[in-house]
Design a protein that fits this description.
Layout (H helix, E strand, L loop, with lengths): L2 E9 L3 H17 L3 E19 L2 E14 L5 H10 L3 E8 L15
Antiparallel strand pairs: 1-3, 1-4, 2-3
């Protein structure tokens, strides 16, 4: 299974509501066969611009990164679920490289 990273921006809420949203999101990943490796909280920040979602204008958001392994076939279904979730402002799934190259990007090899 390929490795992916889910970048989530959630509505700015209190900690119990945020924990419930994250639990719901991670349980959805696991129910669809994904293996969650890591969950990272990047904190609450001002959004770079106002984002209107589900008839609400959001100016602040809580950023999270979820690192997981999953089959590529579940990604469209997962994104559809996250786009319909009223508490998720912006979901983005990125494919992560399996290995990071250890050689220098610029310059001759040694």
């Amino acid at each position: 299974m390929p490795r992916y990273e889910l970048a989530l921006i959630l509505k700015a809420m209190q900690r119990p509501q945020t924990a419930a949203i994250l639990r719901r999101t991670v349980e959805t990943l696991i129910a669809r066969g994904a293996v969650v490796r890591d969950l990272e909280n990047l904190g609450e920040r001002l959004l770079p611009y106002k984002i209107k979602k589900h008839n609400m204008t959001n100016v602040r958001g809580i950023y999270f990164l979820v690192d997981f392994y999953a089959s590529p076939t579940i990604l469209p279904e997962l994104l559809d679920y996250l786009h319909r979730d009223v508490d998720v402002v912006r979901p983005t799934i990125l494919k992560k490289d399996a290995e990071v190259s250890s050689r220098n990007c610029c310059g001759p090899e040694q």
